[in-house]
Amino acid sequence: MNRAIRHVWMAAVAIFAVLLLALTSIMFFQQRSLAADPWNTRTLYEQFGRDRGPILAGGDEIAYSVPADGDYAYQREYRNAEAYAPLTGYFSPVYGSTGLENAMGEQLSGNSDSQFYDRVMSTLSGDQPSGASVEMTVDPELQELAYNLLAGKKGSIVAIEPDTGRILAMASSPSYDPNALSSHDSAGVIEAAQRLNSDEAQPMTNRAISGDLYAPGSTFKIIDTVAALESGDYDTDTEIPNPQNLELPGTSTTLPNYVGGNCTQRTEADLEFALNNSCNTPFAQIAMDLGQDKIRETAENFGYGQELDIPLSVTPSTFPSDLDDASLAMSAIGQYDVRSTPLQVAMTSAAIANDGVLMRPQLVQEVRSSDLSVIDSFQAEQMQRSTSTDVADTVTDLMVSSVDNGIANGAAVPGYSVAGKTGTAEIGSSGTNDSWFTGFAPADDPQVAIAVVYDDVAVGESSSAVSNGQQMFEAVLNG
User: Fold this and answer.
1) Which pLDDT tens digit goes with each residue over 379-438?
2) Taking the model in full, what pTM does it have?
3) Model confidence pLDDT, tens digit, residues 437-457
4) How far apart are CA 396 and CA 131, in angstroms?
5) CB atoms < 10 A from the CB of 68, how many?
6) Does the annotation count 218 as an active-site position?
7) Which backbone phi and psi does 366 adopt, to 5 degrees?
8) Which of 218, 317, 331, 349 is the catalytic position?
């Protein structure tokens, strides 16, 4: 009898131990994953029953919560929705969250560690807990201008403050209305999502930082120029072969020179002439002379290949590996398998503008609790030194000459010195291109660095990237 009782007692202890371990695992180790489970309806009711904090630009609420009827106490609404959708994302009871709604979700909902005291005080006082507000770094006027300049075409515009890394504008087109996805009408939300996801133009992709990325075209020649100057094998007086067609080693293919400028006027070119007229063959020759490791290292010094959160997740830009000379020559003019985000191209110009120092780009200026006390605020942070001050100064002079005397002249702003570089990337056999412009102004005291890209435009329309870059400069300099 005692033996049977002992066995029962041991079994009961084992059961309680298993239950205690399971409870500990659920409470301490699985808490976050269970809370994030889309089938956890209790979490949904908690999230949408809470007054979520607003997302602001220039002090104006862009995304905010309003009281709602039905199962959930609050619904998210968006103002100037399409211009900001790539930044704010959406907060949906059906599909969850994207953009800043996701990246800053804990702060907006009031669940971050820094808001623990606020949650305790709300519990003690019986008040409805409120989330924190998130102020973006973007300038509302510049953001609206950037979106309007895209004028319904496919493309992106990014503007950065070079000496701080603040993102002043980040527009992507086409865009979408996140109000259609934040609605509490589930059937309507699902219909809207299906329509957006089936759209070949991919309106929910933030082209500035994600998607399939772009071939940067001749904007990559800024990287080549830095690599050439850093090597010590080239200076501004070095004469480089400038044939109309360059035979690519190991192939029967030739790389043609750019025909839109004055490249045919010289059989040899210095860096200024080559950059002014965006001549292909000198930069291809530079890359083959220096080797792929030097070009790749220089690209990485400007941010290529690096993971980045702003706090939106940025797809890393890439420079290919294991290149033969022919592929390296094509990569040097921003073609082949080189891929870049518009943010990365703007970062390259920003680093040149900031004496060779790349600042970490940031989209969030400040986070404030519901009582307006500051929880977190922007601090400028050096990401890395991309090149020396001397090289950056020389490249600045070359980019200024490209605007004053070269094919980037459409970016000139009267009364100011502007640095710029155009780019054209062929995208298949359709006869269309991705059209680029990047640069900064004023060149002697930079306030803004920008990148503009248009997808799939006819060759005759490629100048629109330059002219719209000029309008962005004007808005900052004369605003």
Assistant:
1) 999 999 999 999 999 999 999 999 999 999 999 999 999 999 999 988 765 667 889 999
2) 0.89
3) 999 999 999 999 999 999 977
4) 45
5) 16
6) yes
7) -160, 150
8) 218
